[in-house]
# Entry
Amino acid sequence: MLKAHDAKQIPQKSTGLPHEAGIAEQVMRKPSYLNVFLTFAKNSMIRDMSFRMNFILQCISSLSWAAMNYGLFKIIYQFSDSIGRRTGWGESEFFIFLGTIWIINSLIQTFFMANATEFSEMIRTGNLDFALLKPIDTQFLISFPRVNWAQLANAFLGLAVIIFYENELLHDPDKQMNFTIWSVPAFIFFVLCGTVVMYSVMITLAATSIWMGRNQNLHNFWFYITNFYRYPMEIYERGIGWALWGTFTFVIPILVVSNVPARVLAQPMGGHWGIWDWTLASISVVAAAGSLVASRWVFRMALKSYRSASS
Amino acid sequence: MYASRWYDRATMWWTFFQISINERLVYRLDFVIGTLMRFLPTMTQIFLWWAIFDSISTPGSADSVAGPDGEIAGFSFGDMIAYYLLVIISRAFSSMPGLTTGIANQVRNGEVKKFLIQPVDMLGCLLVQRIAHKLVYYLIASLPFALVFWMAGSFFVNGWPPADVTFVFVVSLLLSFLLGFYLEACIGLISFWFLEVTSLTFIYMLLTFLLSGHMFPLELLPARPIDLRGFVEFLPFQYLAYFPAAVFLGKVQGPGMWNGLATEVIWVLTFMLLSRVLWKRGIKRYSGFGG
# Structure
């Protein structure tokens, strides 16, 4: 889009054939993905700012959703000092976990949620045709056009909560924390890995609308899936919970998404990472790469089955 | 003459009813998957509360047959899970997905005009539509519901309640359907005054989730420093989820139960009346453009 705009400016400076060759060259050139994304982000920001009241209300409502969750666990910790016996998820540790969830959720909702829903809708209405015609990777084009800036509020709230409770933990003489200069970059890295996994799950789900005709349940399904990763994985370690634990650690690794970054900062069982923590961390990295490849494959398969919906 | 008019009326509503039922059956697969998925959060709830009760119970009791023996605000572990399951039933009656935004859209894009020129009442039409949708829902959902409740039978420590309690439970569920419908209809009708009600809808959804007891039993709400527990007693929201479940579990008993039911009837009538007033006033304000 930027390119087209630039091309229009050129005639004022020069005339004649050389400039036309320039346009041809520009059309042939590969699009700059970064510039396209920045344009998307800017346009979304302009759109959000033209409905400012709505933007503020959206921020408030997503913040109050987080506040309600915080309240529930504040109440629970009035009755109990840990979630699960000897799991190490005390109040401060758990709120770091919660903050991590808010950050990942908010990244997903800011960058992908509206786009995945829109993708489903494009399939149903046949508008996907127009996306397919554009000279840019289709998965990129449908993944990023709308950035929902208001949803980013929760990421900042999560960050604030994490900083507050990390500080509590570091000043608690009873806790043996192993907080080093690497903790923060490691946290950011694993949050990004987690976001990639969640993005892949979401785009895969959205792509299934091509086969199902309509996928109204995308939002619901998202809500239900995130339900499983919202809590420390230790809670599933009993009875039939082990089945869930196994499924969501190894098959659809969404428990890893939230637990690995949270464990980097909260360190529920003390500072030193055992073999299990390293295993989880490697699953997280492998899952991020693997799920991205898998989602790309599903996406392409789905596109092959796409037959437009226009009359 | 008079009789045939009533007959016409009845046929009209019956047709609406049939259309709505068929409408719901179009995307069956989507629908069945949606119903089954509704129970997934309950599974996490079970494990979350299991872990919480584990840390306040006698060591080892959490993995015994009887389950953890601790209590939170008068709720045993079994009560807590039974509560969440019953709340799903309450919400199956009282939740009205898309009603508010549906009304708002009709007002905004002018579709509401058809109710001004045709001898059809908008709220009545929507109500018939909802009844049809709910009936289809219960028809398809009753099997998974029965399965889940059968599997979760052991959480219902006290078994099936006595006849009068069952009666109040069922009536309060039916009333919660009406309350949910008229409450959301009122919010939708506000769009005659403010065209954009999406944010309002979301805030309503959040409030309902918390204040109706859908998120957790209202007993957990703190009484100090602000008496939130007492405060929600004065609001209609608790009848959308908490009240039927609490009645079933014997958390609300005797006169309190009957008073609650009476209050629910009053709330239903209030919002029924309010929706009529909003509609009357709204269409006076309304101006439709275009054809």
Q: What stands out?
A: The longest helix of chain A spans residues 91-125.
